[in-house]
Amino acid sequence: MKVVAFNGSPRKKGNTAGSLSTVIAELEKQGIETEIINVGKEKVRGCIACFTCVKNKNEKCAFEDDPVNDWIQKMKAADGIILGSPVYFSDVAGTMKCFLDRAFFVISVNNGLLRHKVGAAVAAVRRSGGVPTIDTLNHYLLYSEMILPSANYWNVAHGMNPGEMEQDGEGKQIMSVLGKNMAWLMKVMEVGKKQVPAPEQVVKTMTNFIR
Q1: How far is Cα 51 from Cα 53, in angstroms, rounded to an integer?
Q2: What pLDDT was estimated at residue 209?
Q3: For position 206, what pLDDT does the model report?
């Protein structure tokens, strides 16, 4: 099994990376392969609602001059996904948001590529805004019919300068518990799939309330 984690921070060794690494350490203890992809410093533009992905349904965004399409395929191939972001004005960092908007739109129109995979979200914050950021990240996972593990508090670690989250004892424990629970859930689901068939996927009903 493999988990791919996305670091939405421009800092490759900042507190978001530290949070992800703590989760990943627990996954690796359970024999799960992992990979961290750094999104924060890439030049990723936002979705322009061209609907080319809807028309083509080829698992690709129309923009092919950045890594987003490669990242989509990495998510498709993985058994679990972790989304991590620093907190910018009580929400997800901009580059990460651009990536998620485009990638998860493609995912949603291609028969739910991530359906029933395991997904988790983590945030690193100086003071406040961590919970709204986690909420935003969870929107993408839940919309995709992914299965989410929990920890023993919200998945937020505190720190401003790189490495400061290491001093957040509770934050470190949260990430560790999340990693253990994610590994357990992935293994339980792997066994369960052989015993209990998944519910049939339905065609989404779209309603826009315009009469």
Answers
A1: 5
A2: 82
A3: 85
